[in-house]
Specification:
With about 230 residues, this protein is α+β, with helices and mostly antiparallel strands. It has two domains: about 1-50, no CATH class; about 100-230, Protein Transport Mog1p, Chain A. The chain has eight helices and eight strands, in the order H-H-H-H-H-H-H-E-E-E-E-E-E-E-H-E. Strands 2-3-4-7-6-5 form a six-stranded antiparallel β-sheet, with helices on both faces. The protein has a two-stranded antiparallel ribbon with strand order 1-8. A hairpin with a 2-residue loop joins strand 2 (about 145-155) and strand 3. Helix 1 packs parallel to helix 3 and helix 2 (about 20-25) crosses helix 3. It is globular, with a radius of gyration of 18 Å. It starts with a helix and ends with a strand.
Length: about 230
């Protein structure tokens, strides 16, 4: 078993490793660090179970989306799943300082491994509308849209987007409203994932990839093909 296979095995079931994964863990210091990060996040998730979901959040989300007529009505269908993940998302982002945005974006990706193996709202026109509302104008396509999901954050909702660039590599784009970075960019590396966060649109965005080279290409692609309104 190699490191990538171990990472997938660990994310698929953080509390139970296959014999092959356990053997790899004993021999690989890097993967022991990755496993420790995942276990820490699992502990955070367990603690979140004590956080109450705000009363009426689903209704407020649906009403909010109805008022924003530029969006497709199908976005209202996401309200139920948003309620289920609201508490975790709130806990994950609420204490973020200006130097933690890239790291938290990676942690968010690590908790949604299904984003790389499933298809959800894979609609280029919807992506264009989402970007426009967030404050970004698409100058050209980022590639094939694979996955889009609303994610809860303290100021409202952000977007988790996975796209396949022209070279076939997958990358993730996270859009977070309201949070204002004090720097032009920050980078982080956690468990083999690499991310860069930059100010843009209504708050900031983060690009995440599984290697420094893939991150550099995806980051440059977003910077070339999205113009952010000030």
């Amino acid at each position: 078993m190699n490191c990538l296979e171990f990472r997938r095995d660990k994310l698929a079931d953080p509390r139970r490793l296959s014999p092959e994964a356990a053997a790899h863990l004993n021999d690989c210091a890097a993967c022991r660090g990755f496993a420790a990060e995942v276990d820490e996040n699992e502990a955070r998730l367990a603690a979140v179970l004590d956080v109450p979901v705000p009363e009426g959040i689903a209704e407020r989300i649906i009403l909010r989306r109805k008022a924003q007529t530029r969006f497709s009505p199908r976005l209202g269908m996401l309200a139920a799943s948003l309620v289920l993940t609201f508490a975790f998302g709130l806990h994950q982002w609420k204490d973020a300082g200006s130097q933690e945005y890239a790291r938290l974006a990676i942690e968010h990706v690590m908790h949604e491994p299904e984003s790389f193996t499933s298809t959800r709202l894979a609609d280029p026109e919807l992506l264009r509308r989402v970007m426009h509302t967030f404050g970004g104008e698409m100058q050209a396509s980022l590639g094939k849209v694979r996955y889009m999901k609303l994610c809860p954050v303290p100021e409202g909702t952000g977007w988790h987007i996975v796209f396949e660039a022209e070279d076939g590599k997958l990358a993730t784009l996270i859009l977070i409203p309201a949070k204002r970075m004090k720097t032009d960019a920050e980078q982080a590396q956690v468990g083999g994932w690499n991310a860069v966060a930059r100010p843009g649109g209504q708050g900031f965005y983060a690009v995440i990839a599984d290697s420094p080279d893939a991150l550099a290409k995806a980051d440059e692609l977003v910077r070339q093909r999205v113009r952010w309104r000030s």
